[in-house]
Structure prediction request, 236 residues.
Amino acid sequence: MITKILRPNSTIVSLLKQTEDKDSESVVRYFNQFSSNVHGHNMYKLSDNDILAAAEYFYQRSDMKQEVDSMLANFDLGLRQVEIRKIIDDDKKEEFYLPYGAHQIGKKKIMLPFWQESSGTQSLFVLLSDILPVLNSGGIAIIDEFESDLHPHMIPPVLDLFSNPNTNPNNAQLIFSCHSMETLNYLNKYQIQLVEKNDMCESESWRLDSMTGVRSDDNIYAKYMSGAYGGVPNIR
Prediction:
């Protein structure tokens, strides 16, 4: 049946969604649980639209908004909470949501437009809008440049959200690309996929545990840095 309705400008999953085939419903539900900061062929780069989209999402989900405020405060970013204001443009008949960082200085409360917050704070706010829905539903988060603008100390707590059954009761998964070598200290050999270009400029990928002689108790970070596993640039 699918072959009859295939189109060059549409994916199989989107076509399945249009059918009334019962067997295809589970496939569509599975892919609907994916969350990602990658769209089309563009490399991820934080944008104003990402911040506005995250603000709208958390405005509509007060339960997750409380989690975000708690996490941002725990990361010692100087934030007490993020306040989100709904703005209505009567002329354009549009509405949008503006986030503000609430800072407590003594007894004084100071509000900063979110674009005046650090890039790390902005990135973490947007990142949480991608991963918290997945943690709640049990889906898969696919994050490019996971460490982008984040302080290295922020990475382990975010990874712990997926490894801790209390914060991940539905067995959500995280797939991410990263150039921060220190992240290897928080992963085991079964979780690491290395990528390297060969002499033909083709990218090759392999899982670390597929390599002979790699032990679970190895200092993976140190061995990777020494070039033992490959996947490091050959800078001349």
Observations:
- The longest helix spans residues 119-137.
- The two ends are 54 Å apart (CA to CA).
- The first strand starts at residue 34 and ends at 36.
- The beta strands are 34-36, 81-89, 94-105, 108-113, 140-143, 173-176, 193-197, 203-207.
